[in-house]
Structure formats: C-alpha cells, structure tokens
Amino acid sequence: MSNQPIDLVNLTIPAKPDYVGIARLAVSGIANRMGFSYDDIEDLKLAVAEACTNAVDHAYCGGDGEIVLSCNIFENRLEIKVVDHGHSFDVSEVESRTGPISIEPTMNALRERGLGLYLMRTLMDQVDIKGDNGVIVTMTKFIRKDVVESHVESPTSYPTNR
C-alpha cells in the first residue's frame, strides 16, 4: 500500500447549494475511473454532498465563500478532503452528539445536528474532521474487490460436455 497518491484532483466551487452537485459528479467520475462498485460510488457521492452541504449551511452564514474539494487518488483508495475557510466549530462537542437516532414517537426527539457526520462515518471507511481556521473533512474509501472473483475459476477451466 503506497502512501504517495497516483494523482491529485482539486476542484474549487462557490459555497452555494447549486454547486454541491458538481462536487458529487466529480467524485463519481473519479471513483468510476478507479473501479469502485456502483454502491461505493453512491456512498461516496452522498458523503461528499453531506460534507459540502455542511460547509454551505454553516461555514459562511450566507456570505460569499468557497469550498475546496481535493481527491487524492491512491492505488487502493480514494482520499477526499472538503475544506472551507469559514466559521469553525467545536468538533468534539458535535461528535459527542453524533450517532444513530433512537426511535421516538415525536419529531422533537430527532437530533437537530450531527446526523450528517454520522452518515459520513457510516458511508466511508475513515473520516477525520478538524475545526481550526475553517473546517477540513477528510474521508477515505478503500476499493473492495469482490471476494467471489478471487475464487472463481476462469471459464476455460470448466469441463465441457462436448
């Protein structure tokens, strides 16, 4: 496993809801090219959308700003950084409230914040969040090869009935 990326793709978008889809499309294209499964690509797109939406909603308080999406492409994984230079937050305080919600009969029982972080942690293999001078969300997804593929014999080795 190499610690040096094969390639680096950077994308800077305005911190506006209309541009979150562009970040999703970029990550989808990169992941597809790397050989990620359909399900993993969908997970990547959702996690990136959550990270970007958090930046749009909380970093700049409706003011102008930008989000930098960096995709480090490794042989066996994709490392994505979503960076804003807006308002930081107390990461440990938010993470203490992050987790699955309990089923309650009222809407008031739902947690107001932290579900996006929980979702990112559920969808990705590794998530790291730093809240100094803006927010940096680093998410990693490893490429999984089907276990079945390594145990299936090639079609030429099957006996024929001719």
UniProtKB/TrEMBL annotation:
Record keywords: ATP-binding, Kinase, Nucleotide-binding, Serine/threonine-protein kinase, Transferase
Enzyme class: transferase
Stored Pfam families: HATPase_c_2
Catalytic activity: L-threonyl-[protein] + ATP = O-phospho-L-threonyl-[protein] + ADP + H(+); L-seryl-[protein] + ATP = O-phospho-L-seryl-[protein] + ADP + H(+)
EC numbers, comma separated: 2.7.11.1
Superkingdom classification of source: Bacteria
Sequence similarity: Belongs to the anti-sigma-factor family.
NCBIfam families assigned: PRK04069.1, rsbW_low_gc
PANTHER family noted in UniProt: ANTI-SIGMA-F FACTOR RSBW-RELATED, SERINE-PROTEIN KINASE RSBW
Name assigned to this protein: Serine-protein kinase RsbW
Gene that encodes the chain: rsbW
